[in-house]
């Protein structure tokens, strides 16, 4: 089902929950996670920009140390 698509680079989880609930568990193995405390209806463009800025500041190691 997802083999024709690249794995996600970033997962943003809203509502403050720090779990993925078995969502795309294999595809997310090298993804970056951002857990945002805002609820989905309150998550706006500014929040999205802040999450992307945080993602851009990270150094991805793809499982390395």
UniProtKB/TrEMBL annotation:
Required cofactor(s): Mg(2+)
Keywords: Transferase
GO molecular function terms noted in the UniProt entry: ditrans,polycis-undecaprenyl-diphosphate synthase [(2E,6E)-farnesyl-diphosphate specific] activity; magnesium ion binding; manganese ion binding
Extent of the signal sequence: none
Source organism superkingdom: Bacteria
CC annotations in GO: cytosol
Biological process annotations from GO: polyprenol biosynthetic process
Coiled-coil residue windows: none
Transmembrane region(s): none
SUPFAM superfamilies (alphabetical): Undecaprenyl diphosphate synthase
Protein name stated in the entry: Isoprenyl transferase
Organism: Staphylococcus pseudintermedius
